[in-house]
Amino acid sequence: MKIAVVGTGYVGLVTGTCFAETGVDVVCIDIDKQKIENLKNGIIPIWEPGLEPMVNRNYEKGRLKFSTNLKEEIQDCDAVFIAVGTPPDEDGSADLKYVLAVAREIGQSMTGYLVAITKSTVPISTSVKVKNAIQEELDKRKSDLEFDVASNPEFLKEGSAVDDFLRPDRIVVGIENERAEKTMKRLYKPFVLNNHPLIFMDIPSAEMTKYAANSMLATKISFMNDIANLCEIVGADITMVRKGIGSDPRIGNKFIYAGAGYGGSCFPKDVKALIRTGKDYGYKLRILQSVEDVNDYQKEVLFHKINKHFNGDLKGRKIALWGLSFKPNTDDMREAPSLVLIEKLIDAGATVKAYDPVSMEETKRRIGDKIEYVSEMYEAAVDADALALVTEWSEFRIPNYKVLSKLLVNKVVFDGRNIYDPIEMKENNFIYYGIGRKMA
Prior knowledge:
This protein is an alpha/beta fold. Helices cover 45% and strands 13% of the residues. The chain has three domains: 2-203, NAD(P)-binding Rossmann-like Domain (Rossmann fold, 3-Layer(aba) Sandwich), CATH 3.40.50.720; 211-297, N-(1-d-carboxylethyl)-l-norvaline Dehydrogenase, domain 2; 299-433, Rossmann fold. It contains 19 helices and 14 strands. The strands form three sheets. Strands 3-2-1-4-5-6 form a six-stranded parallel beta sheet, with helices on both faces. Helix 5 (97-109) packs parallel to helix 6 (126-140), helix 10 (203-234) crosses helix 12 (267-280) and helix 12 (267-280) packs antiparallel against helix 13 (286-298). The radius of gyration is 24 Å and the shape is elongated.
């Protein structure tokens, strides 16, 4: 079986590589010539655990190819996955120009029956637009070639994407007929043999499933952050509340951790897009609007705590940051809470010295030299007035308090992910601020 995956970003590269791992012949296609050359030479554009050796192994075995030429590579393909970006427009809607450009190129280049599968996260009814775009190009060619469209949304978590793909909770596929279903069943046969659920449904339902899933997870996070802020006011501890409600199987203990707000490539974009879809159809998604509002506020909570501790005077203060990426095990800085904190600290006259295991280059690409980057976690704390933990990388979880106390000018820690024990902090003579927690 041969497939093409158009787009070698986070979704496309993981999708193509993991299918190659199951024995499918895969060609990953991108218009970025340098990115394709880098991939051929084993240079991976994203940091994702386990991905690099899998890419190189399948490339060496010939199951995984990289190309810039869809027209040439589409020959004999059973399916083409569209996995290009859908960045948000100013109104929050998803920009489909890249998706539809690929659809038109498929119509211009295909030579036999295939299934065009939308892997990118797209609004409901996008597959209709994809189908029309392909058909229009076939009509221009006066071609009677047949094709089908399908929706196959991804549910990959950054930091565990390879494992998520190979051992999925579920595989959702939207199709229109049995012919497309047959192709998709063949493609996903290795996963079904391992008892991973393959769920077929109509295409609009598949498109909605992706947005609904991410929006539900974002809702849980914002709900807990909202409750955490109230906990501080009334004297409760969010970590105790989390244990109390998480033991209820109807609620569960996943995604109910309070923190400094969510970020990344999916949650912010997908919540905005679903809110926009509701508006387009004359329906206001009031809960999701509140989810977004709470998250925007939550990204500023650490700054407000720091500013209040120093009595509103941060001019000349040195603040150390541990963690920059929006979550551990990725270098993704999209919508990262650290960027909001950095901007507000600098605007208030503070200087920032930061360390992150993998995302400092990406941060520098985005904001330049507005902050100082250091190569080791304790180096960030040297002569700092305070330490702010923003991303809960494993290496930050058990710090050497004796070393830290000697380096910090003021022994004050702002824990944006609630990974430290307030009592332990007090025993080591630190002033501790968490999210929704009592100070010991």
